[in-house]
Amino acid sequence: MTAERAANGAGVVTKLSSRSVADTVSRLTDMIKAKGMKAFAVIDQTAAAREAGLELRDTVLVVFGNPAAGTLVMQASPESALDLPVKVLVWDDAGQTKVMYVSPAALAERYNLGPELQVKLAGIDPLTDALVAS
Fold it and tell me: Cys staple from 113: which of 1, 14, 36, 108, with CB 3.0 to 4.6 Å?
């Protein structure tokens, strides 16, 4: 599908999925497992809002990573643990499912990571490309 880079200065990447939020999240978690990564949490923020008596569009946060790669980044830059493991937000924007995450380049810049560590985070780009492919 279409990919767009948000120009908000935060390094957030937005990709469009032709699937529903639930189907996109299911596909993402299947892909994470198939690649041998660890899904740390799938947070249904819509359900949490409902429990608080509030309404929220379909919104799910998936927290995942590869501890072998992420640990090296956190050893070099302990404060990177604020952003690791990586997070992918899948949400409904007026009927269009959006997939969003902070780009590896933005994380590398934020935590002053060299190319050898930035590559440890770069797998999210092809993973999400495959996720939103038809």
Answer: 108
